Automatic annotation (TrEMBL):
GO molecular function: type 1 cannabinoid receptor binding
SUBUNIT field: Interacts with the cannabinoid receptor CNR1 (via C-terminus). Does not interact with cannabinoid receptor CNR2.
PANTHER family linked: CB1 CANNABINOID RECEPTOR-INTERACTING PROTEIN 1 (PTHR31952:SF1)
Record-given protein name: CB1 cannabinoid receptor-interacting protein 1
Length: 111
């Protein structure tokens, strides 16, 4: 099922652009790759986190919404690298049951 658009929405309603890098499908399912450049994101204040939602809209108007809570640091801040892990990939395995217009998330993995 081809992807029509991918957006990231902040809790304030602002949309952040996401680049669709790759789409492939087979009899077993489909895989999508997206890229988001965080270099222009403002650092979060002390003890605060950013709440984001990834919205993936497919061509048949089915939508997958993935809520995230993340922390942005200054790009030159090396002190916090040992406190947490840099998010590079999110793998989500979904299943769409026959005759239904919604998907169920089977497995999530944050790398």
């Amino acid at each position: 099922m081809p992807v029509r658009s991918v957006t990231i929405r902040t809790i304030d309603g602002d949309e952040i652009g996401v680049k669709i890098v790759d789409q492939s499908s087979s009899e077993d399912g489909a895989m999508y790759s997206f890229q988001w450049d965080t270099n222009n994101c403002n650092p979060d204040k002390k003890r605060k986190r950013s709440k984001l939602q990834i919205n993936i809209l497919f061509q048949d108007n089915m939508k997958l919404e993935i809520p995230l809570q993340i922390k942005f640091y200054k790009s030159d801040d090396q002190n916090h690298l040992s406190w947490g892990q840099q998010l590079k990939h999110i793998n989500i395995e979904c299943e769409q049951k026959s005759g239904m217009n919604c998907s169920t998330i089977i497995k999530k993995c944050f790398l």
